[in-house]
Structure formats: C-alpha cells, structure tokens
Write a structure and sequence with these properties.
heterodimer, A: 136 residues, alpha+beta, Thiol Ester Dehydrase, Chain A, elongated, B: 140 residues, six-stranded antiparallel sheet, two-stranded parallel ribbon, 2 helices, 11% helix, 40% strand
Amino acid sequence: MALASVPAVGHELPSLDKELTQRHIDAYSGVRTRSIHTDEAWARRKGFRTTLAQGMMSTAYVSEMMTRLFGAGFVRGGTMSMAFVQPVYAGDRLTVRGVVKELRAESGGTRVVVDVWCENQHGQKTAVGTASGVLS
Amino acid sequence: MMEFRPLTYDALTIGEEFVSDTMLVTPEDVDTYTYAVGDDHPWFSGPSPFGGPIAHPTFAANQALRLRHSRYVVHAGLHAKMQFEFLEPIRVGMRVRSRGRVIDKYERRGKQYMVTEFVTEDDAGRPLVRGQFTQMLIPA
C-alpha cells in the first residue's frame, strides 16, 4: 500500500517476503550452460554449494517494495545503491526490509531515503544499501 | 565479424566502452520478468500514471550487466555492487539499449574487480536509467 504521507525518520517499512526457486532464477537469468545461476554442475565447479540467484534479483525486490510505497515517485526519480554481501542460493527465502534514514526537501516534494536490506531464512543479511523515492 | 576474447583482469582497459544490441520491450518480456521476480504490480500489465503499461524499473538491468559479454567470453563473475538512478519509466513498446564504460579495475584481498558506469536509453537517445556496477572476476 502506498504511503499516504511522509514517514518519520526511523519508520520501519512493511517487509516483503520472497522465495527463490530455480524456476524463478532460470526465468530471470535465462538458462545457459556454464552459468553459476542455471548450471548446477558449473556452480559446484566454481566452489558454490548449488546455483546462485543473481544479485540483481535482490535489487528487483527492493524496487518492488519502493514502488509499492512511493509509486511514480520511485519509478521516475528513484535511486538505489546496493552491495551484495552474501550469496543467495536457489531455494533460499529472503525478507526485504527498510527503515527511513533521512528526509530531504527538494523541488516537487520530499525525498525519502531508506536503509534497505535483504536477509535470508537464517537471518543473515545478503544485500545492504539505500534507496530513495520522492513523495509530493 | 566480432572477435571474442576471454575476460581477464589484464585484458580489461579502463575507459573501454561497450554498447548492447537494441531490445524491443514486449509485453511478453515484461511478463516474464515480473514472473521471475514475483512482482505483479498492475502498472506492468495495464494503465499506469505514465499513460500505459511500463516495465519493472530494474527490467533492463541485465542488458547493462551483460555489456561485457558483447566483447568477452565471461567464465563466471559475481556482482558486488549496483547503483541505479531511475530517470524515466521503461514503457512497453520502447526499443532500449545500454551503453557502458569501464571506469575502474582494482584488486582487493586477492580478488579482482571491475567497475562499469552505464546508461540505458530509448531509441531517441533519451536516458531512462543510469548507474554503475562492480563485478568480481572469477578466473577460468
């Protein structure tokens, strides 16, 4: 649900839960041989326990959370900066979270800067960063 | 005829530029993307504040991320960091392409990284998404 008003610094945004199946990863990355995302034998050969989701999938999840809250103010004018700190494997479950970090007045509204992160089913953070959208 | 070389740290040059092919944004591609990331926002399949269906904001990110594949054979890599500025929505029916430039490469704790800045634009050259990403190189 979109935010009705500018949230306060420290406000915790509604979280988002995501299950990553191999089928989702295949649809995202395109099935290829010699891919750590879609070729399990290749992923093992490269030292991973199974196939990995692309880090970019986590940016899509953050984008989903931000679009649902900020609407057009994220689609046009939004920003995101993420670091991928732990691998995400096929079969993992991620929770996307956000807490309002900063409010900046700018022409046309207020830019809301949010600390965002994804954590897996073990409570480990897999991606961390910030995202922002504008509320008019 | 394009000649592809294996991607190695030494082969990379700071300042080298990449251009993707042009991609027509079809409803089917937008639908596949929304399935892949499990996001069924109604703007991706129906009316939106932008006058018609749009793609997920990160829809074209893989086009940018795969820019280096236009010149190199990439054995494997890990995505370390990603930055986006969403300037304009990507609309269904647009033709989009991404341009990139290697702006840094560095070694840290025995790992090798490359940093690329990119812009995704429509067929009139209008920027839609801008950003940069850092990728770790995994040796063959």
